[in-house]
Amino acid sequence: MEAVQTNTRTYNRTLVVVVMMIAMAAGALMQTSLGTAIPSLMKAFDINLSTAQQATTWFLLFNGMMVPLSAYLANRIPTKILHMVAYGLLFIGVLVTMSTPENSGSWWIFIVGRIISAMAFGIMMPMMQIVILNMYAPEERGAAMGAMGLVIGMVPAIGPTLSGWILKQDHTILGFTLSDSWRSTFLIPLIITGIALVLTPFLMKNVIPTKKVKLDFLSLVLSTIGFGLFLWGFTNVGSHGWGNVPNVLVPIFAGVALLVVFVWRQLKLSNPFLDVKVFLTKDFTIPSVVGILAMMAMFGVEMMLPTYLQNVRGLSAFDSGLTLLWGALLMGVFSAISGALYNKVGARALGMVGFAILGLGTFPFLFLTPETPTIIISVLYGVRMAGIAMAMMPMTTKAMAALPDAKTSHGTAANNTLRQVANSVVVALLTSVVQNVINNNTPSNHLKVTEPLRYASKMLDASLDGFKIAFMISLGFAVLGFILAFFVKQDKKEEA
Question: Rounded CA gap, 415 and 152, in Å?
């Protein structure tokens, strides 16, 4: 345990990080455990895959809308108060989601709960990075960010396994029965959030100095509506298709137009709402993009693989989650390893090796069949997650190291904004690809009656073809990430 003296206040850095990691674990579980529960939600609410995926895409939409605001909030509101508000919102959002009645007409209540949670998570993620960057010296940040990567990477990867275990059967723990309902998948994040909320007044400290920063309301409007329209257009791709004008193309292009105005305004303001000039620093921009590619490669497959395992392979929710468990463990192990190696070998070497491993683990997914042994899938997924862990957090740390301390809040907000936009796009892209392939290859209805076995076989083939294309896109992220990682600047101390 290490105490730090700042602004006449003594506080323990470790305890501050522990509180944030507890809350982040709850948010990450709530976000990603949904992947295994998607088939259960489809049955409970009587909805199709693209509608069920809205639970993820709407989450990412509002998450992305909130992140640009985080730089202003971090500088304007005391750290402790801001964390209490964020954790309180997360608690309310999870509670609303798990309380939604099971019918298609109530699906909007489920989405509202997800939106509230997303607003909280949109504050929490960048705030954790900003606090770490303010508490630790540059030479200490690799290990600290590695610990953060443990939560960001490992906990979301554990989510599908935990969710599958819950959905398998009722469980009795200390006399309390945890039902096999999809609602129970939100109970653990709710409890963890409650613990973080209780601990925050006592352990969280005002790490970030506050200052009177004027809020540029026009920038807030442009940012919120611009990102909102852009991401909303992508959320509609799965249900409406890429060629739909009013629901897909108009929101996307309108969002882009507003974001162009937003960027232009930030360049003109003396105190910008979000300092986009951080992207003029090449040593910040390139590692940021490389780290985002790693996140896209992880998030897209992480959301699609449980559906493949359950709908194509016929695995139960628990078995599909268990298949991904080794990936979760390796993600945690290699996050810690990459954090320890960061100061010794540098982000470029870790990134290139990580993306090479990611590519090797992804390529065999292009040849999946309904009979592929689950142990093979588990091993390949583990290899992928190890590669992602080696590339993602070192690149984020490298990007932040390129900025002066005064710019860290804006750099973190900018990095996380791009990450959330990219995640929303990749989920919409992969979902639409799978759904469109299935729609285009669905056999005629009369075959379902006359030859049900042949109908089922053709549907299985259509689903498998869609998933293979999704995996091919993920492989493209790995290849592009490897190429861009080569251009990340190598510090002299890393070359020694």
Answer: 15
The mean per-residue pLDDT over the stretch 5-13 comes to 58
SS3 326: helix
Instruction: For residue 423, give the H/E element and its range.
Output: helix 408-440
Contact 399, 291 (CB under 8 A): yes
- Give dist(CA 353, CA 388) in Å, integer: 10
DSSP 4: E
Over residues 245-259, the pLDDT tens digits come to 888 899 999 999 999
DSSP 8-state secondary structure symbol assigned to residue 149: H
* Separation CA 419–CA 167 (nearest Å): 30
Residues 463 and 434: beta-carbon distance below 8 Å: yes
Q: How far apart are the first and last CA of the chain?
A: 32
307-321: pLDDT as tens digits: 778 777 777 767 877
In 3D space, the residue among 194, 162, 168 whose CA is nearest the CA of residue 180 turns out to be: 168
Q: Degrees (nearest 5) of the Cα angle 152, 319, 45?
A: 80
Distance CA 117, CA 97 (A): 9
The answer to whether 198 touches 26, Cβ cutoff 8 Å, is: no
Mean pLDDT: which of 4-8, 159-163, 351-355, 413-417 is highest?
351-355
Is residue 177 classed exposed, middle or buried when 0-12, 13-18 and 19+ CB atoms within 10 A define those classes?
exposed
pTM of the full structure? 0.73
- C-alpha to C-alpha distances, 342 to 288, 347, 392, 436, nearest whole angstrom: 16, 6, 12, 42
